[in-house]
């Protein structure tokens, strides 16, 4: 699987904001449909956000749920369930949402896929947080419109913040479309959600701005 990657010296190139942040956008040439409607097992899609040969998050799809596995101590923004229930689903974030720590003025929280100790072992089969679940009335999801999944991951230089851009792929079965992702290259610095540039837009930016454009590949296709 191949991606178009652009490193922007300033986010202001895209949304007019004033910042010295370096944002890396990974744009899929076409949306990836994460859906499993034929297998009794789990289809897995592993992603290395910062291309350092270490898987950071894994999407899993079976016939009843699409979920996200937080590898190692990585975390995802989620919507807490009402007590006495624990955990909760992955949160659908709007545009211009600040992904960082802490999450100011919001009921949302950070969590690992492992509620017990916050660490997902390499051989652990659990550690998933639900995104889309099938109910008797059809698919239940906050991602019917294109929105964002906020993530925190362990990079070579510390903790980094980023997001995936997704939407629901099918309302009758659990599935999502993944359009790409972005992350802040400065450790500990929040990132504000913005729609991933289309491949044609990335090529235009490469022709007109002092940025770097090159192809990357994922560590694991599925």
Could you explain the architecture of this structure?
The structure is a single chain. This protein has 222 residues and is mainly beta. It has one domain (2-217). The protein contains 2 helices and 15 strands.
Keywords:
222 residues, mainly beta, globular, five-stranded antiparallel β-sheet, eight-stranded antiparallel β-sheet, 42% strand, 2 helices
Helix-strand topology string: EHEEEEEEEEEEEEEHE
Q: Distance between the terminal alpha carbons, to the nearest Å?
A: 10 Å
SS elements, strand count: 15
Q: Percent of residues in helical segments?
A: under 10%
Q: What structural category arises from helix and sheet content?
A: mainly beta
Q: How would you classify the quaternary structure?
A: single chain
Beta content comes to 35-45%
Strand order of the largest sheet: 8-6-11-12-13-2-1-15
Mean pLDDT: 74
Number of domains: 1
**Count the helices. How many?**
2
Low-confidence stretches: 8-20, 134-139, 203-222
Shape: globular
The major β-sheet equals: 8 strands, antiparallel
Radius of gyration: 17 Å
Task: Give the structure's gist in a few sentences.
It contains 2 helices and 15 strands. With 222 residues, the chain is mainly beta.
């Amino acid at each position: 699987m191949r991606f178009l990657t652009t490193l922007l010296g300033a986010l202001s190139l895209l949304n007019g904001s004033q910042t010295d942040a370096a944002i890396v956008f990974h744009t899929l040439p076409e949306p990836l449909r994460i859906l499993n409607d034929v297998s009794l097992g789990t289809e897995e899609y592993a992603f290395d956000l910062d291309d350092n040969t270490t898987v950071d998050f894994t999407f899993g799809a079976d016939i009843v749920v699409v979920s996200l596995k937080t590898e190692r101590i990585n975390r995802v923004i989620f919507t807490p369930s009402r007590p006495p229930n624990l955990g909760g689903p992955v949160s659908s974030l709007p545009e211009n949402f600040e992904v960082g720590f802490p999450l100011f003025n919001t009921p949302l929280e950070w969590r690992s896929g492992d509620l017990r100790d916050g660490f997902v072992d390499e051989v652990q089969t659990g550690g998933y947080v639900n995104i889309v679940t099938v109910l008797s009335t059809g698919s239940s999801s906050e991602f019917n419109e294109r929105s964002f999944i906020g993530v925190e991951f362990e990079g070579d230089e510390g903790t980094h913040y980023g997001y995936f851009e997704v939407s629901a792929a099918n309302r009758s079965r659990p599935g999502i479309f993944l359009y790409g992702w972005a992350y802040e290259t400065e450790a500990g610095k929040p990132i504000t959600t913005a729609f991933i540039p289309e491949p044609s837009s990335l090529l235009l930016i490469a022709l007109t701005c002092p940025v770097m454009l090159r192809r990357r590949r994922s560590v694991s296709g599925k």
